[in-house]
Specification:
The chain is an all-alpha fold. It is 83% helix and 0% strand.
Length: 258
């Protein structure tokens, strides 16, 4: 599914908008989970006794990178939606693909830096790196939720204003802005669904990870922890179905590729 998203964004002109580029970045993070982290987790569960610390560090690093890259990509597209709805005219001028690509590259650079910091600060029994990582993720998730709460209030006000001032004889030109605003709101709702699904899948894992420090990784805890971790990673396979259900552009592109 994530490969379909990436190929669609790369080959379909209508899917090469700024928000679609951020969605592509999110698909890369999800694909990293599917093709690397999930197989590594299976190996960790089945061969735990024979795995070296280096392998475990690599697995943790990949997991951390994919997680914070997903959250950072969602934060970026959330800011993009905020800008598009609040400043539509400036957005049309400033939100260009080259700038979006620079933001995406910078975001992945920050994610890589945080991943390295988490490893360096987690030597021995220290949980400092973990706290830094989850603190970053938690701050972004709270910011995303607050921004979408604000966006839906603004969108509702816009919808009420359009209903109030729009006359039956409005021309096609006069309808352009309402139509665009409607499209922006629909895009914002789609990303909000993605964020909601992400939080649903990952909150149990984040809670277990933080509580791991108090139970010292007992065998019973780790068995449950691996199940929770596996469930959280299933989120990476869900997003393409959300895009397909919410966007006719993605549905058409997926059918064309299949």
């Amino acid at each position: 599914g994530n490969i379909l998203v990436l190929v669609s964004v790369a080959t379909t002109a209508s899917l090469q908008t700024v928000p679609d580029l951020f969605i592509g970045s999110l698909a890369v993070a999800d694909l990293l989970v599917v093709i690397v982290q999930q197989p590594c987790l299976i190996a960790r569960v089945t061969l735990d006794g024979s795995l070296g610390q280096t392998f475990l560090d690599v697995l943790n690093s990949i997991g951390n990178l994919s997680l914070i890259a997903s959250v950072t990509s969602m934060f970026a597209v959330t800011i993009d939606r905020l800008f598009a709805i609040q400043r539509p005219f400036r957005y049309a001028v400033l939100a260009t693909k080259p700038r979006a690509l620079i933001v995406i590259a910078g975001a992945w650079g920050v994610c890589a830096l945080l991943t390295v910091m988490a490893v360096l600060l987690s030597e021995g029994e220290s949980i400092t790196g973990r706290l830094v990582l989850w603190g970053y993720v938690s701050i972004l998730l709270v910011a995303i939720v607050l921004i979408y709460f604000y966006l839906f209030i603004v969108a509702q006000k816009h919808a009420n204003n359009i209903v109030t001032v729009q006359a039956p004889s409005t021309t096609t030109t006069g309808n352009n802005k309402p139509v665009n605003q409607k499209q922006e709101r629909k895009a914002a709702k789609t990303i909000a669904i993605v964020v909601g699904v992400f939080i649903t899948f990952w909150i149990p894992f984040l809670s277990f990870t933080i509580s791991q420090a108090s139970v010292s990784g007992t065998p019973a805890f780790m068995r449950v922890f691996y199940w929770v971790w596996s469930i959280s990673m299933c989120n990476s396979a869900v997003n393409p179905y959300i895009y397909c259900a919410r966007s006719i552009r993605y549905r058409r592109s997926f059918w064309r590729l299949l």
